Amino acid sequence: MIINYNTEFIFLMFTFKKSKLIIMKSINKFILLFIISSPLCFSQPDIPINEWVGKTILLIGAHPDDDHQSHGTLAMIKANGNNIYMVIMTTGNVGTKDPNISKTDLSKIRRQEQIDAMKEIGLSEEHYVNLGYDDGRLEFADKEEAIGKLVYYIRKFKPDVLMSFDPGFNYQVWHKSDHRAAAYLTADAVRAAEWPLMYEGDIIHKNLDAHLVPELLFYGGNVSDKNTIVNIDKYVNQRVAAGTKYLSQFSSGWFNYLGSNIDNYPKGEKESLFKKIRDRIKMVNGISVEQFRYYKGRPDGMGRKPRD
């Protein structure tokens, strides 16, 4: 019998490589599952977010609804006994394609949508502040005034953790105009708030103290910069319920606003809206997650690696 050793060797090598590939895929999947399911996942805070208790969290955004991508995490943090405040910089009074809505009416609509969404995740209207800037024009607002307002609320609420749009890490993240402005105004305000001789009127006349924000949690940045994953499986229903309150933004109300009751919209709208909000949630191996860039340290280092 003639044995073709070359053919047999090639077959054995192919089988070995195929088995190695299967094993490596299995290992990678196991590691990813461990990262997602373990509270001690990579680059998490010293105390994992799902174990935070008794902290004060301040979220700063550009528009009513900017917090929606963090609703699962916010619902969890609130349920675990933390205190949450929101400061939104614009009224959202331009965000519609419905020609029959005025800026004043839209401002009122979006305020109520925000409050209704907050209630779904356990937050109250008393913890909501809107600075009243015009939607779409935040980058043209008086920068010193805007930073001063943010400094005031940082000093008033004294957050242990501040959440905002990610200004970028070693480079500027591209955001649309209001998001971009909010990211950098917030970063500058965080830095200013710790210095007692900056915006000292807060300290002299309003009985506030300078405040150093020790931890930052950035949303809306590039996926490659995010270093913290939060398992929100238990809070998906709350996130979806909250997201569906923004009828002027996420439903056909964007083009033809029919009020705050979803039942007044075309047939099938309710089901499609719930599906849209649900489908926006990132899934990793069947687990619902939200991702952030976490930073702890002096504000000057929030956007860069250590330097000489």
Task: Describe the secondary-structure layout.
Layout: H1 5-37, E1 56-61, H2 71-79, E2 83-90, H3 103-120, E3 128-133, H4 143-157, E4 161-165, H5 177-193, H6 201-205, E5 215-219, E6 228-231, H7 236-243, H8 247-250, H9 269-279, E7 282-284, E8 287-296
Parallel strand pairs: 1-2, 1-4, 2-3, 4-5
Antiparallel strand pairs: 5-8, 6-8, 7-8
Helix pairs in contact: 3-7, 4-5
What does the model show?
The structure is a single chain. This protein has 308 residues and is an alpha/beta fold. It has a single domain (55-301), classed as Rossmann fold (3-Layer(aba) Sandwich). Helices cover 39% and strands 15% of the residues. It has nine helices and eight strands. Strands 1, 2, 3, 4, 5, 6, 7 and 8 form an eight-stranded mixed beta sheet that branches. Strand 7 (282-284) and strand 8 form a beta hairpin. The chain is globular. Residues 1-5 and 20-43 have low confidence and may be disordered.
| Count of DSSP H/I helices | 9
State mean pLDDT (0 to 100 scale): 88
What is the CATH homologous superfamily assignment? LmbE-like
CATH class: Alpha Beta
Q: How much is the radius of gyration in Å?
A: 24 Å
- Any low-confidence stretches, pLDDT <50, length ≥5? 1-5, 20-43
Distance separating the two termini: 72 Å
Percent of residues in beta strands: 15-25%
CATH topology: Rossmann fold
**Portion of residues within helices:** 25-40%
Q: Give the strand tally.
A: 8
Structural class given helices, strands, pairing? alpha/beta
Structural domains: how many: 1
